[in-house]
Give the backbone structure.
Amino acid sequence: MTQHTIHTHFPGRLIFIGFGSIGQGVLPLIMRHVGGLTADRITIVTADDAGRQEAEAFGIKFVNHPLTRENYRHVLDPLVGRGDFLLNLSVDVSSIALMKLCHEKGALYLDTCIEPWPGGYTDPNIPASRRTNYALREEVLELAKACRNGPTAVVTHGANPGLVSHFVKQALLDVATDTGHSAAIPANREEWARLAMELGVKVIHIAERDTQVSNRPKMPGEFVNTWSVDGFVSEGSQPAELGWGTHERHFPRDGRQHDFGRKSAIFLVQPGCATRVRTWTPMAGHFHGFLITHGESISISDFLTVRQNDRAVYRPTVHYAYHPSDNAVLSVHEFCGRNYHQQDSKRIMMDDITSGFDELGVLLAGHAKNAYWYGSQLSIGEARQLAPYNSATSLQVTVSALSGMIWAIENPAMGVVEPDDIDFRRNLEICMPYLGPVVGRYTDWTPLFDRGRLFPEDLDEADPWQFRNIRV
């Protein structure tokens, strides 16, 4: 890409909170596509020196000052004001706290996941139900009620959660067209939910297979990943979560329901990095993924719920099924074997990646054509050609953070919004040039394919899309 579209202009200040792999990858995209933003109006506040060299190359102020409950207001007060933008790409800094601060200051906000203060994901003294993304989202929804028509705060807008919510909408339209279902593009949440119900979608997997490999093998005592190690360890340590569909007839023995909130999801009393599910992508075929909790599993299932007299009459089961890079899989196995104590050393694969793809999309299943996968098949070679400081994995996240940021600048008084609430066409327009091939593929695969080959299994042959058939 030799010429870059200026999508919007921004006259305020930009404050990065955190500058790991995603922060480092999104900075050059922002400088390309957001007009009027100069280096002297950008500040990076982070907890270590990662990315300092890149910041210096751009001439951007870099502050190594970890934020805590006690100091975050003191540190950020002189940096954030009306009309500014706070881009939260941190770990262990409360998203709720930062959103409240931005609302008070009149500043725009975006994050890629809802973060608690340290311990919020893993402290065993906190009930498991409260360590979930479901609980964090419920806090955000309560905050949204108090912040209507305030400065826009876009929550959970990376690749997933984020970009995949836009993939779901496009996939629903594709299936509608291909099954002869005549319908205009839905105008609101109720119409999207009604479309999903009329198409017969029972299950949505966020199905991802990362095949990127490194010329440096993982060493014992090292956690290796293609994106934030701390972020992956945190979410992998949370309870496995999924949006719970109304078609499900078998409640999992280790499943638990919430006694508060919108009741759109359940959780399992085990960490996501120790829970496997079956899924499918076009390049990889069928495989086992980790049922890692993600915000989109909850927000998509809630967004697509059809209610009658306050009773859910339709809702799809939605969950993430993630097979990370082989180095990351080895790291997860070692992490679990250490009773979920993180390894002493960590490394993010970047320049050492020699080949591979990140195949990230959504698998909509149960409709008249069985299952449809729609998503990005981005290679490391393409990613390097498209943007510096990125791998295939990080670029899918960073361009979605960029698109959410641009949408917020263009719509500055929308209050707190989720990806499902905003314009999928505008976001896809911005993201598409950076996603490599974006394809849609139908498949006759179901989770019953080749099951029982080694040992007989008690399977529900009548409905292959029951969660009991999907889970390993």
Residues 396 and 444 are 27 Å apart (CA to CA). The domain at 8-154 is CATH 3.40.50.720 (Rossmann fold). The chain has two domains: 8-154, 163-391+433-470.
